[in-house]
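Support case: zinc ion complex. Customer-provided input:
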Amino acid sequence: MARPAAHALPRFVVAIELDAGHARCTTVCLPTRGPLPLPADRARGLGVVDVREVLELPDDLASPAAAKVLADAVAVLGGRARGSVGRVGLAAASGIAGMPVRRLAARLALRTRLPVVPMARGTALAWAEHRAHGGGDDSVLAIEVGASLSAGAVLHGVPFAALTGIDLAHMPVGPLGPPCACGRRGCLEVYAGHAGLERLAEDRDVPPVEVPIHDLHDAGRARDLALRAAAGEARAQAVIEEATRSLVHVADAVGRLLGVDRIAVRMQSAAAWAEVLRQAGRRRGAGPRFDASPPLAEAFALGAAAFAQEVTRPRR
Ligand SMILES: [Zn+2]
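Agent response - structure generated as follows:
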């Protein structure tokens, strides 16, 4: 994995997070060496400098129309950064990482005349964790628990399976388990993502609570279940314990297989569940260090930008 000399690294990178039907574009200003800036560094002019509204994208990501939407966004963001954007990082959710995203990257590079680096969303997360930890020889498996799961790894400073990613979200946990959106059964995601938690709650007749609409895709229901479990509600406890078991089991197995030093589980605002996960992680005994906590602020934008800044496009 060749790295350009530090003086050749662009400081301004546009990070694009792609999900089905939409993209979120961010201009990121990065240091060309040293640890990845954390939010506290913003006052010194490092870190995220501008966030643009979420953009609607056509369904066909490989289409010229999709590339045009993103190229226009890059032009606007580049203008705000006084034209000094030197690269684009394109981080795709696990369900859509792959060939359409590589085609989109190629089209976008033609339109913007900038290097465009595609990657899986999990890789952006893992790179953010790696760089925030100081970079170097660090090995980390990073998992985001949200509405779905994203996972990626950095091994001794080298991104693992950068584009297609290890699709931890679709690791089979129970081959006879509930159907998954991917068409198979019993994937980790159906147990341990937020949708999985809701399904487990339904199976166990835990009545749903009212959650503000803006919180549905965040962590409202997961947080509610975790709080009820912490308060001693038996059925909520059973749900949280089952999801925790699945998640820790798969994370531990993959973490050991890859030989990482640490496993970073990042969850949106479900602090009560994070505590249950930390305890379960500690009970495993030997193995990679296990850490569950809220995500770094702007982890995907920072990770995607830093990855695009530092890592040349993987050969395929
Ligand atoms: Zn699946």
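Residues 50 and 80 are 8 Å apart (CA to CA).

Case will auto-close in a few days if no follow-up is received.
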